[in-house]
User: Which sequence fits this backbone?
């Protein structure tokens, strides 16, 4: 798979890059093993991963922890899909998919800008990255992916702006809506609504970091009822409005 690689930060403890897929790869890759442990955090769109015995949907609501001990394959159907990749010497346990805090997407964007602008010392950034890794180390993940849950994740990642109801999603994944709601929360630690909101907010952060200007258009595209609904939800999770975040990104670019 061909990537554009942007180097963000490198010390003996961490090597942080942003990878952008140049061309969609609809088929499964060959099996790979990483040379060293690393955390892969999707920031836009989604991809599929075969990790050990399970097939997983990886989207901005989660992080993928990869180790040299476990082979993996990927299928990336979306060109321009972006991911943060943090290679580290830390031991976070076995390879797995884990939940990713929605607030961490904005943090990575801000830290990247601050480091590039000389506004953040290496020790401070190392400690912040270590804090994120500690969250991953403490997070639990389902040992066996639930098939209907994975289908629901795939559906929501493909159309985060669609006003899908529980009945819509249940029908699409061939599962009782009541059973799906229980299984989804048990498998992901989030409700379907919270999961979709996390996806929408992560995509908003990515689009703003990429220079999106029209906030009303972005709100409509991501499925928020209005610009004010978008702003209120964004501020609830990031303690700032999209416009304030937009200005901070520009200031540190």
Assistant:
């Amino acid at each position: 798979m061909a990537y554009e690689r942007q180097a963000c930060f490198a010390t003996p403890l961490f090597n942080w890059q942003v990878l952008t897929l140049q061309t969609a790869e609809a088929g499964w890759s060959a099996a790979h093993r990483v040379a060293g442990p690393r955390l892969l955090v999707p920031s836009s769109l989604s991809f599929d991963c075969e990790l050990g015995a399970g097939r997983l949907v990886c989207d901005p609501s989660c992080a993928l922890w990869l180790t040299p001990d476990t082979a993996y394959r990927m299928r990336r159907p979306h060109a321009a899909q972006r991911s943060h990749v943090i290679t580290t010497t830390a031991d976070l346990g076995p390879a797995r998919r884990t939940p990713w805090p929605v607030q961490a997407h904005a943090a990575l964007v801000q830290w990247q800008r601050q480091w590039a602008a000389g506004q953040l010392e290496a020790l401070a950034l190392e400690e912040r990255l270590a804090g994120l890794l500690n969250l991953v180390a403490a997070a639990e993940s389902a040992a066996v992916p639930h098939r209907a849950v994975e289908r629901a994740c795939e559906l929501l990642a493909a159309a985060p702006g669609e006003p899908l109801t529980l009945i819509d999603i249940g029908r699409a994944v061939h599962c009782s809506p009541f059973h799906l709601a229980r299984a989804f929360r048990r498998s992901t630690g989030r409700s379907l609504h919270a999961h979709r909101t996390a996806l929408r907010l992560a995509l908003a952060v990515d689009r703003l970091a990429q220079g999106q200007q029209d906030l009303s258009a972005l709100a409509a595209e991501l499925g928020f009822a209005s610009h004010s609904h978008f702003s209120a939800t964004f501020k609830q999770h990031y303690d700032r409005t999209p416009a304030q975040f937009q200005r901070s990104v520009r200031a540190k670019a």
